[in-house]
Structures are given as structure tokens and as C-alpha cells.
Amino acid sequence: MSYPEVFHDIAVTLLPEALANFRKTSAPQLLDLASIEKLLPSLVTSATTRLNNAQLGIEHKEFQEIFQYGITAYSEVYLEGDWRPYLLFAELFNKMALVENLQEWALNILSVPQSAVAVEVNPVAPIMLAKMNSRFNTNNHVLAERWILQNTIFREAIEEYNRKYNLNLKAFTLETPEQFSSLATNIDVFVSSSLEAMSLGWRTVLDLAVKLLKRRGTLIAMFPANAREGLRTLLKIWKIPEYPPLEKILRDLQDARFTQIRYNVQGPFTLIYAQKR
Amino acid sequence: MSKQGMVRVFKIRCPTCNTVETVEVNDKILIDAQSNPLGLAGVAFPHDNHVLIVYVDRNGEERGTRVFSLLQPVAKGFYQVKVPDEWLRGLRNIAGFTVESKRINYRISGYLRQPSSSIKVYKGETTLEVDFARDISYQQARSWLELLAEALDTSFSFNQADYVNAIRLLDVLIEEKPFEYIKQVFWLITNASNITVKVHEREAMLARKYRPMILFDKHNGGFINRVMEVSNTKVSQLLGLENPQVIYSYIEALLSLQRRKIIDLVVE
């Protein structure tokens, strides 16, 4: 049998390798990793003991294998300036059963008008847009930070999705709001489901959704339960800040006048689905 | 006073004839390296019966040399090749072509039908002339020819199939608009005989196991699996002389794998 903190324990066991990899680089992530270095031996010992007594399922092994690769991928960015493994990792993350289940759940309950306008925020590979377009023939937009849109590999990847899935995509830079002012209150579906989208933090995602969604527009947002040590430090590698607990996120949504709020929890990730009033 | 746009200068000795050459790395070379899937640009020095290529990376650093033997010394004029007619059958828009590369002293041509119009473009030391079998938008055709000529100017291939595949691909693409990574598509097809696929085992294992959506939904899954199974294969062997649409899909698949570091494309 597994136990609630199993993903945190798996994350803890990945941290020594992360620390060793990032120590070879001058990456800013090293500071976060080094800050728990003294605690790591005891954390790893207790996590390993618990993991040895648990039966790990396929979703745990996927999480372990893919995030282990993610650590290598991100350290290669700093070591060799090679972003290609990062792109592969981003796509593998979307193939984890936990993440795919959440995305499928949202797409299965999603109801949109004809020619709906969709935005995916901060994807290095616009996978949710591709999935939505296949089902709903949406009008598609990417809203991403400059570091994504100016990266040659990600630009090529976004273009590859654009061409292969006939997305007819328009891309806007998040840092220049005047560029995407035309989207304000015009969006039917706002999606935030990549690790890079999570790195924006809950307030930014919510504020963007409030600003861009039209009345009855749908917010689909994935976030991690990373308050506890393990995922907290592991996800800091992807610059993901600590997210508030689910109850607080649900309250924030109500305060921001969202209704029809539903959520689904898979392992350490939660996907919320809500409509703007 | 330094020359405008000059980043660095270094000397290199040709391993075949011992001639010492001065490589002047300028902004254009760096831009070429940046848009190349390998992150390399080749600087060519013709030496009588061979050509020395010095590879420079996107930071302007020297990344090795390669010597290509010429089929005929420069003094004797172009080495000329005519491609068999049957290789050009099935072309919709193109009636014939000539490529002349002073870099490798090579002229290759093939003509199948009477042309209705013709366009000639020059890039670096390469001339590309294409005859069209039917009316075609001049502006659009010219921009495509310039893109292809730019790729041909980086090629050191003597394999007729590389040129014919490039022309057959052009015949298909010329009705579309160029896209973000088209230069890479042309670069790969025009250099196919000199590029080897090296598989990264860890990435290939993860790709096989988790099957990233775009790789297996939108590219030829059989081809993707074949590439990941066999390392050290020449791109030209993988492409063969299939129909242009299939070759195009294979090239896109190779670039897609390379973009995810599942394979590396190595000049050999």
C-alpha cells in the first residue's frame, strides 16, 4: 500500500542527485537545493525507509523516472546550453498518467461554444491546445514569457505543434500586456497546466484568468501540492513557488466570482475547472 | 582597426596538403551556426583536388575539420553529372534544374520537360536554376529557391540522390509558405549523405516507453521506431528515394527527434 506522502518521499530521494548535478553549474537553483543540504541525509534516510515498506504503483515509478530525467535535462541547460532535453522532459511530464488523467478529465467535462477562443499560458509545447483543437476546433493562442518565446528550440517546437495540429496559433509575450490587450474578456478557455505555467504562481494565473476570460469562460488550471518538503524543493528547480492549500485556492476562486467549481486530485497535482460568472 | 562584424580569427592547417588557412569568423558565420541544427557553420577552403571544411560553433569556436575529395581538380572546370530521367518523373511543378557549386567544383542537372518559365538564384558560391513546367508565383518561387540555394551552399555532397530529393521536395513545398524550421529541412536533405544519426539511448528509451504525443501521433511512428533502433546510420540511407511526401515526413521526423535530443545529427 502506498501512503499520502509517497510522492514527497520520492521527490526527497531525487534531491541528492539534483544537488550533485546543479553543483556542477552556476544555476540559481543551486541556492535552493543547497539550503536543505544539511537536512538531506536524514530526510533521505526516513523517506527511503518508508518507500521500502510501501508498494509503489506505476504512477509512482513514472513520477520518479520522469522527474529524474527532468533534473538531468535542466542541469544540461546550464552545463551545455542545450534546451533539447528540457523540451523532451516537458512532453514526458504531459505523458505521466497522473497528468494525462487530469487533462482528460477536464477535456471530457469541458463545454465550449463553436469557434471558442482558447489560451494556453506558458507552454514550451502547447499540448493542451493541440488536444482541445482536435476536439473543439478552437481558435488558439499562446501567452508565454519571453524566455520561452525567444528560445530557438521552444519556438521550433511551438511551430511544430502549430503545423502538425493545424492550430493557426498566435503567440503573445506575457511581459508586454499591451500586446494581448485585445484578448481581454474575449477568451472562452484559459489553460494553465504546464510546469512553466505553475512557475507563474497561483495569484498570477488567477489574475490573468480573471482579466482574459469572458463571462462564462472556463478556467482549467493545474497546480502542485508543494507545501511539504520533498516536492517543495524539487519543484523549485522549475522555479515553482509554494502553492496555497486547495481550500484557499477554492476560496480565492469564489472571491474572484468563479462558479461551477470542480476539482480532481491525482497524486501531488490538482486540476481545477471553474467558470467565470 | 578590426574588420566590421569580425568575431575572431584563427589559423588552421589542412591535414591533406598542409596548407595553412586563416579563418575569419564574422557575424554571418555565427548566424549560420545558430540556424543550423548542429549549431555549426562550415567554412570552406578549396585546395586543388580537395576542399577543407572548418566547422565553427555558434560561439565562434573551432569545432573540427573535414576534408572532402573533389571528383575533379578545380583547374579542369566543373565535374558534371546528369541525373537519370526516371528520378525526376512525377514532378508536378518543376521541369528541370541545374545546381553549380564552386565550393566543391560540382555541377548537377536534370531536365525532363519543356519549361514555361525559369528562375536562377545565387547564394554564396552556389547557383541554382530551376525550370518550371507551369505558371507559378514568381515571388513565392524565388523565396523558396533562395532558401534551397542557401542550404545547397552548405552542402559537400556528391550524391545525386541528395540533390534530386531536394528538388523533389521543393516541387511539393513550393505551393506552401515557408515556415520556421524550413532551413533545417533543406539543410538536412541537401547534406543527407554526409550526416549520420546517433541515437541517445536514455532519451530513446524514454520516448519508446512514454511515447510523446506529437512524435507518435503526427510523425510516421514506424520510421521513428526504426531511427531509434539503429544508431550510426546515414540520413541518406534512411531517406532512400521514396516519394517526396514520404521523404518530407521522414525529414520532419528526424528534426523532431533531434529537437528532443533523442538523436544527434553528426557530420561525418
Structure description:
The complex is a heterodimer of chains A (277) and B (268). In chain A, 52% of the residues lie in helices and 18% in strands. Chain A is of the alpha/beta class and 277 residues long. Chain A has 2 domains: 6-94, no CATH class; 98-276, Vaccinia Virus protein VP39 (Rossmann fold). Chain A has a 7-stranded mixed β-sheet with strand order 3-2-1-4-5-7-6, with helices on both faces. In chain A, helix 1 packs across helix 3, helix 1 runs parallel beside helix 4 and helix 4 (58-80) packs antiparallel against helix 5 (84-95). The longest helix of chain A has 23 residues, at 58-80. The N and C termini of chain A lie far apart (42 Å). The mean pLDDT of chain A is 94. By secondary structure, chain B is α+β, with helices and mostly antiparallel strands. Chain B has 3 domains: 6-69, no CATH class; 75-179, no CATH class; 193-267, no CATH class. Helices cover 34% and strands 31% of the residues of chain B. In chain B, the strands form 4 sheets. A 5-stranded mixed β-sheet of chain B has the order 6-8-7-10-9, covered by helices on one side. Chain B has a 3-stranded antiparallel β-sheet with strand order 3-4-5. Chain B has a 3-stranded antiparallel β-sheet with strand order 12-11-13. Chain B starts with 5 loop residues before the first strand and ends with a strand. At the A-B interface, helix 4, helix 5 and helix 9 of A face helix 5 and helix 9 of B.
